[in-house]
Please model this.
Amino acid sequence: MALTADGGNRLVELLTGHGERVVQRWTEVVAASLRGRLSLAELRLQVQELHASMINAGGAGLADLQVPAAGELRAVLADLSRSRARQSFTATETAVSIYALKDVLVELAETDGAELSLRDVVDFTGLVDRMGLLTFETYVQTREGLIADQAEQLLELSTPVVKIWDGVVAVPLVGTLDSARAQVVMERLLQTLVDTGSPYAIIDITGVPAVDTQVAQHILKTVVAARLMGADCIISGIRPQIAQTIVALGIEFGDIATKASLADALRHVLRLTGVEASRRHPRREA
Amino acid sequence: MERVPVLKIGDILLVSIQIDMSDQTAVTLQEDLAERIVATGCHGVIIDITALDIVDSFVGRMLSTIASISKVLDAETVVVGMRPAVAITLVELGLSLNGIRTALNVERGMELIAATRDDDLGYDDTPGDVESATAATSP
Model:
């Protein structure tokens, strides 16, 4: 049952009338649930802010949290939830900060003889529930934002393209290769080929824990794209188990050179370039 | 009508495509290039597509045709300067430029053509090469 504007007004009166006591008890209940991970002064400040914004929202604002009058209250709830999420409090610990108000209201009704009908109590707890849900949503959003940021950072960190010889670049792949990462690796490798003018690239998959058809597909696409641009790719770092998996899955690498280790791949490339050099060298002298 | 210029650099003809290709420009380019190969007797053609943002099946086919025409006239064709984004798109579309050799930039393309010509013409010199190579390595 939704809170009416009248009910909201009665709650505002209650919060205003017993202001000091509500803030005091609310802070105590929250502090007990957080077990000293936030200082009492800080908590008190947060609770005071919540308390004030609820009063400011007025009866209409409390009856419907979506109206403009409740804007401040929504912002305060979102702020609280965001800061809790950033400080790695659990969802429960965040929500308890709001739900503590229920205990305080019931206590008020019992001890201080505030005149509350059963209807009012049910409506008030309904409001607190909705406020709690609001913090949940913000909490989840904040956490999802954090995870997305971290995933992006991981993408940045884990795909370096290094130059290991004149005209030879290497990509040491580490970790599982999903579509998004494969795309980043491909783009970065091809861009480096253009920037450095390197005709050879070595893709080292020592750090890739498993190669399935999808991963192989990504690698093959990269190799074909590099070929289209006029560069040759060598795949290195194929561990024994992975070689077995590749054969068992029937993945065809075609005429793409594959080597067991990065050193072998580099030696292969150097021989390719070396042969060219030794062939052409005498001709220039002649 | 727009025309793609064909430049002669040493033994190589350089074609730098910097406009959107239409049927007419493609046909004109093929005619111009064939004439120039015959007129100059060049043995290498470099097609620079650095400026092309989009390579679709039409451009792909045009490149293949040019390569075939040059082949008949005994000129090696190398496509150079393909952008990473273009290469990725071609792979995703499953288009492959069959029979076309590629290089990263014009310089590499010229090296590639020079190397191929050496290989093609060099079988008479090969014994001499081996001798001079062994002579160089022996103390």
